[in-house]
Amino acid sequence: MARLAAEQLSVRYGAQRIVSELNLAIPDGKITALVGANGSGKSTILKAMARLLKPDGGTVYLDGKSLLKMDSKEVAKQLAMLPQNPVSPDGLTVSELVSYGRFPYQRGLATSTREDQGMVHWALSVTGMLPFAARPIEQMSGGQRQRAWIAMALAQGTDILFLDEPTTFLDMAHQLEVLQLLDKLNREEGRTIVMVVHDLNHAAQYAHHVVAIRDGQAVYNGTPEEVITEEMLRQVFGILADVVIDQRTGVPLCIPYGLVDGSEESPA
Length: 268
Hints:
Elements: E1 4-13, E2 16-26, E3 31-35, H1 42-49, E4 57-62, E5 65-66, H2 72-76, E6 79-82, H3 94-99, H4 114-126, H5 142-155, E7 160-164, H6 172-189, E8 192-196, H7 200-206, E9 209-214, E10 217-222, H8 224-227, H9 230-237, E11 239-245, E12 252-259
Parallel strand pairs: 3-8, 3-9, 6-7, 7-8
Antiparallel strand pairs: 1-2, 1-4, 4-5, 9-10, 11-12
Helix pairs in contact: 4-5, 5-6
């Protein structure tokens, strides 16, 4: 049984239902990628499973307990969430940002403990940000900033890490830098990682499990080889594409060539 699962999960924004009676189990110790067109409900599902949104119906379970019934600090010790485009106050150093990850373990106005300091040092080290610990966040490159935010999430000491489009607005080099870091955290630290991903080829290369979302429902769910198919791309994204096996990585490679507009013939 998966540690984290949604059962009959429904979420509304005002009068509009975005997610309806979703059942989804997150594989333990794996990287799961949520993919789908814009507005399909990917980020909403991620936020609801991270308890940032209150469901309209259904339940998210963590270790058999309803997430909504758990104490907030206890939840924060179990899972961490990195939203899209996080913003920090001007002048905040990398080390200060990462130290915020220790908030669930602190009481009142108590200063950080030796354990807190050790976790901050470890998070900075594992993300490669230790040399920049005293530097202001605004002086970091896009990839370095994202690694600093990931370090803050790691400092929470959680086994589960949620990331909402962690490579958005990064150039190709910095995208790979972040994805390789997440891959390392999964392999070496055993972290369960759930992330919303726009690039299907990134999902195929770095995720063990892929969930394709359409209209708030998981319409495809499985390994990259099972999910990233030409039929899925037509149904979920409305695109025509060839899917081949990448000879370098052995995973599916998506090559789009058109839109589903009544004509499904590949160009000569």
